[in-house]
Amino acid sequence: MDDKVRRPGTPETFTLAPAVELDADAAAPLPIRAHFPGDEPPAGLRIDDLGPGDESQPQIRRALLGEPFDDPLAPGSLRCNACAHRCVLRPGRVGICGVRQNRGGWLYTLVYGQLVAARAEPVEKKPFYHFMPGSTAYSIATQGCNMHCAYCQNWHISQAHREGSVPESRFVEPASVVGEAVAAGARSIAYTYVEPTIFLEFALDTMVKATKAGLRNVFVTNGYETPEAVELLTPYLDAANIDLKAANDDFYRRICGARWEPVRDTIMDMHRRGIWVELTTLIIPGLNDDLTELRSTAEWIASALGPEVPWHLSRFHAAYKLGNVASTPAATLVAAAAAAREAGLKHVYVGNAPDVVVADTHCAGCGELLIARTDFGVAMWRLVDGRCPRCSHVLAGVGLDDSRGRH
Ligand code: SF4
Question: Global pTM?
Answer without folding.
Answer: 0.91
